[in-house]
């Protein structure tokens, strides 16, 4: 997994920034905004205490039906009447943060036109027997072949020995030995070791914390072409210089990392291209393609935003079916915001056929996770008891994939 100095946004912040449906808020995030007029119709005093969400949390059974339910008549709404998943009411991100546009989920993994990755350069060097043994899972053989070379100052062998010690592959895990060999290889100019040792210096893990040296090693590893270092150094620049200036300074490193397939960088690039002023029209036009590439890598936040962008027509034309599929992909993966938005898509038959039981299932999962939504609460109050029971059963059987 990619080690990151910073996240693009903390999970809590990410969820708070992504939600802008009327009345939707996370528990502990403050009071919800005023409910939409149609959602407020028929509301009764004490609704918060007697809500369906409250009974979900308490595990109690159904009560007398009340509230309003969206009719499942299957009628297609005109494009101008479709509810938008994101809006200008979304609070602005903190300075320097890259906020998602808010979102849903699954993309059509087949047939999506994305920018091509650069062609790999043919390998013309001498095969490394130690690395060959490592790749085949012969870790003790790899250690026996690499250690003598490492002791003679071979930087690549030193990095391999460090990896074996760090992960306990064929030998007892020993992070102090790993730190020693990473440092030796970093001093000898191996970019992978420079990146790994920079992380250890930042965290003070098995070595004294040294932010200045860590930044220098991370920058040098990034300039030498290490994709993970490029992303992490970009994050460092954004953290040290919040706002547009830091984002533009980091942009070249995000671009290089994204081109090498780092999903976090692809997501960051999409957000910068779409939201930062001064970006050329040519680059802005590729924002959605970079977001879809990150989504296709399994990055759930990118899948969530891909659903929103496609449904709302951000960065290109609307595609309700693809937007629905990306939303469902993120929801199946366990993204709570996507589960909430997917329920709304099922209720309003956006990109799919209306399905009250599926809508109820995803509403229950997001409510149980602590995502308060009076609109979904009201919807559940209006479902017949048999459909509530089916939704409860489906939710109880759900496991993130």
> How much is the average pLDDT?
79
Content of β-strand:
under 5%
Ends apart, CA distance between termini: 18 Å
Side by side, the strands of the main sheet go: 1-2
Number of domains: 2
Estimate percent helicity.
55-70%
Number of helices: 21
SSE topology string: HEHHHHHHHHHHHHHHHHHHEHH
Number of separate strands: 2
Poorly predicted sequence stretches spanning 5 or more consecutive residues: 1-50, 60-77, 87-115
Radius of gyration: 25 Å
* Inertia-based shape: elongated
Summing up helix and strand content along with how strands pair, one would put the structural category as mainly alpha
Major beta-sheet overview = 2 strands, antiparallel
Compact description:
By secondary structure, this protein is mostly helical. The chain is 56% helix and 1% strand. The protein folds into two domains: 17-63 and 90-106 and 298-401, no CATH class; 129-267, Tetratricopeptide repeat domain (Serine Threonine Protein Phosphatase 5, Tetratricopeptide repeat, Alpha Horseshoe), CATH 1.25.40.10.
């Amino acid at each position: 997994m990619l080690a990151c100095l910073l996240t693009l946004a903390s999970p809590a912040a990410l969820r708070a920034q992504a939600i802008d449906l009327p009345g939707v808020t996370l528990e502990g995030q403050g009071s919800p905004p005023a409910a939409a007029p149609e959602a407020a119709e028929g509301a009764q005093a004490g609704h918060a205490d007697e809500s369906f969400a409250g009974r979900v949390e308490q595990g109690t059974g159904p009560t007398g039906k009340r509230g309003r339910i969206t009719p499942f008549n299957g009628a297609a709404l005109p494009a101008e009447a479709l509810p938008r998943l994101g809006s200008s009411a979304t609070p602005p991100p903190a300075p320097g943060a890259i906020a998602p546009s808010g979102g849903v989920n699954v993309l059509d993994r087949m047939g999506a036109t994305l920018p091509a990755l650069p062609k790999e350069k043919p390998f013309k060097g001498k095969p490394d027997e130690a690395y060959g043994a490592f790749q085949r899972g012969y870790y003790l053989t790899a250690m026996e072949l690499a250690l003598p070379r490492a002791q003679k100052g071979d930087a690549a062998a030193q990095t391999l020995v460090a990896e074996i010690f760090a992960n306990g592959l064929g030998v007892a895990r020993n992070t102090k030995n790993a730190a020693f060999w990473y440092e030796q290889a970093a001093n000898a100019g191996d970019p992978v070791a420079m990146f790994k040792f920079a992380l250890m210096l930042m965290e003070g893990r098995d070595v004294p914390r040294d932010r200045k040296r860590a930044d220098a090693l991370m920058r040098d590893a990034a300039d030498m072409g290490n994709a993970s270092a490029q992303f992490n150094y970009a994050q460092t620049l954004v953290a040290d210089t919040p706002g547009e200036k830091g984002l533009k300074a980091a942009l070249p490193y995000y671009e290089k990392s994204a081109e090498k397939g780092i999903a976090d960088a692809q997501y960051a690039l999409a957000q910068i291209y779409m939201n930062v002023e001064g970006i050329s029209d040519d680059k802005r036009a590729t924002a959605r393609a970079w977001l879809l590439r990150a989504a296709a890598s399994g990055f759930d936040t990118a899948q969530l935003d891909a659903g929103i962008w496609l449904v709302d027509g951000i960065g290109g034309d609307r595609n309700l079916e693809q937007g629905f599929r990306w939303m469902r992909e993120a929801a199946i993966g366990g993204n709570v915001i996507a589960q909430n938005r997917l329920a709304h898509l099922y209720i309003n038959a956006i990109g799919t056929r209306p399905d009250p039981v599926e809508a109820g299932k995803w509403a229950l999962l997001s409510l149980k996770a602590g995502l308060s939504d009076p609109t979904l609460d009201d919807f559940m109050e209006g479902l017949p008891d048999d459909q509530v029971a089916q939704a409860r059963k489906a939710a109880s059987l759900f496991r993130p994939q």
